[in-house]
UniProtKB/TrEMBL annotation:
EC number: 3.5.2.3
Alphabetized Pfam families for the sequence: Amidohydro_1 (PF01979)
Positions of modified residues (N6-carboxylysine): 99
Function: Catalyzes the reversible cyclization of carbamoyl aspartate to dihydroorotate.
Catalytic site: 247
Name listed for the protein in its UniProt record: Dihydroorotase
Entry's Gene Ontology molecular function annotations: dihydroorotase activity
């Protein structure tokens, strides 16, 4: 019998960019409509590096998202981050996690970390106080091919890091490769990963389908089919180490469709529809709730959400544009519909 409707605990998004100001008012309701909580990425300009900046950003998100949504804030790690500031923000309940952007790796990462050794004191402290470490796992060396940057990061940075901080809870964000899926699966329980809809649905051909496709461009960039399949197997396989993180990263249409287009895919409006389609295709709908609603809270040490959401098997057309933004799947449709 084919399942026609799917009800799961209200899910969370463990990696999202909500931006600020006008963009925030457009995108926050999209995330709040489907998710109970979200890990909010701190790569604003200027980045969120102080407890005060995070607390006031949190207030702006709550105002834009409306009732029933809880933003979980993160600290943007810099070379000069003060471990005491991290501990204070964590103790005051402002920061749930801190995020590593290797300097130059992605959008608004100019103030990021230039050498992992520079944040070893911060990581010592985070390990001690139980603060989660979220990682953009790509090296930035110009000598390393774009498509190899995640795998090389795992070899050069993450492998020694996991050894040096055996009790630090680490999330390797938005994994894109077989190497990442395998490394996370075989590591101890304190290393987990988030997976985006685009890395489950697209391979790198999507970047060039009939012409250059800026709306398929994000970082880490989508990889070969072999990698997409490995990431898919990991996500649907039932391991508690893999959970939902959209990496929804809106940029105005003109900033994407440009001679130097921004990296980021705005997938928040139809995120659950996209993930449900993948789990359905993999005949793994029975594991969708763990991935979307249970594994993340268990890893972060938070309770699961009260309440539930329902998806129905129905054609869900995606509009060409939402305001000034082009959503993931624009002009096509998903096979599931979010019904609240
Ligand atoms: C993100 C953004 O635009 O902030 N872009 C992206 O392609 N994912 C940054 C990031 O998460 O790398
Ligand atoms: Zn991101």
């Amino acid at each position: 019998m084919t399942l026609q409707s799917l009800t799961i605990r209200r899910p969370d998004d463990w990696h999202v960019h909500l931006r600020d100001d006008e963009m925030l008012t457009t995108v926050a309701p999209c995330t709040a409509r489907q998710f109970g909580r979200a890990i909010i990425m701190p790569n604003l300009v200027p980045p969120i590096t102080t407890v005060e900046a995070a607390a006031s950003y949190r207030d702006r998100i709550v105002a834009a998202a409306g009732p029933g949504f809880t933003p979980l804030m993160t600290c943007y790690l810099t070379d000069s981050i003060d471990p005491d500031e991290l501990e204070r923000g964590h103790a005051e309940g402002v920061w749930v996690a801190a995020k590593l952007y290797p300097a130059g790796a992605t959008t608004n990462s100019a103030s990021g970390v230039t050498d992992i050794r520079n944040i070893y004191p911060a990581l010592e402290r985070m390990q001690r106080i139980g603060m989660v470490f979220c990682v953009h796992g790509e090296v930035t060396d110009p000598d390393v091919d774009m498509f190899d940057r995640e795998a090389v990061f795992i070899d050069r940075i993450l492998t020694p890091l996991v050894r040096d901080f055996p009790a630090l809870r680490i999330v390797l964000e938005h994994i894109t490769t077989r190497q990442a899926a395998e490394f996370v699966a075989s590591a101890p329980a304190n290393l987990a990963a988030t997976v985006t809809p685009q890395h489950l649905m697209l391979n790198r051909n999507a970047l060039f389908q009939g012409g250059l496709r800026p709306h398929a461009y994000c970082l880490p960039v989508v990889k070969r089919e072999e990698h997409r399949l490995a990431v898919r197997r990991a996500a649907v396989g039932g391991s508690p180490k893999f959970f939902l993180g959209t990496d929804s990263a809106p940029h105005a249409r003109g900033a994407k469709e440009s001679a130097c287009g921004c990296a980021g895919i705005f997938n928040a409006p139809y995120a659950l529809e996209a993930y449900a389609q993948v789990f359905d295709e993999e005949e793994a709908l029975d594991r969708f709730e763990s991935f979307a609603s249970l594994n993340g809270p268990a890893f972060y040490g938070l309770p699961v959400n009260e309440g539930s959401v329902t998806l129905e098997r129905a054609v869900s057309p995606v509009p060409d544009q939402i305001g000034d933004l082009v959503p993931f799947g624009a002009g096509s449709s998903f096979g599931w519909r979010f019904s609240g």
